Amino acid sequence: MILSAFAEDHGCSLRLAKRGDKAMDESQWRTLRIRHLAENGWCFGGFRRRNDRYYERKPMEASFNWRRPTGQGLLEATIAIGVVLVGLIGTVTLTTSTVVSSGASESRIVAANLAREGIEAVRIIRDSNWLAGPTTPWDSGISDATDLTAIAMLDPTTFAWSLDFTPTDFTDSRTILWREMTSGLYLHNLSSPANQTPYARLVKLYAICRQSSVETATAASCIAGTGTKVGVRVVAIVQWAEAGRTHQLSLEDWLYNWRFAPPSYVP
To answer: Of the candidates 4, 252, 257, 240, which has an alpha carbon nearest to the alpha carbon of residue 104?
Structure first.
């Protein structure tokens, strides 16, 4: 309708204003119009007459129904909670994994240093034998005719190293390392005050046997036919338990008797 379109263009809607079964006369229409203009001046025109009916303009009301279907809010809340929980679980899992990885890396670094210390202990004993003079065999204290497993013992008073060939595997409690809290040293022999660590260490020593230009290092000593002993192959093994699992780390080095004079080469 033209009148409806006109009213809606000006922000108004139409409502039929009627007095009983008869249309209002001119004076009634003017009175209502003046009162309407006073009350709703923003919607000009007040009333318009059409076919003996008078239409009153009023503000347009939105026809969209904002009421949501029953249960839709609960469904959206459930979905939102689910999304938040997935994000939280992922964050917690990542954080836990990072902490565990950091702890594992720290334990592995300590184990690597303890294994390196075992090798250095053997090197120190060999160097001390050289400094003792030619009457002391270079491999004194770092070799056994039949046993190739040992533990590196440190005297916390003199800081002198020695090897104990009694332990043969990690089932021996003497392989366990204890940390002395005063000095921070890791010791096999229990010292007070000391705390037990999760680490245990073994050192394996294989004689390096040279036959002509071939070297082998598979036994504690060089037997007949394998050549002359020119060094010692040192393998330090550290074992520790973490998160219900047992871990092992090993380092290896070949230490030679640099004073060894090989036989003259004969073509």
So the answer is: 240
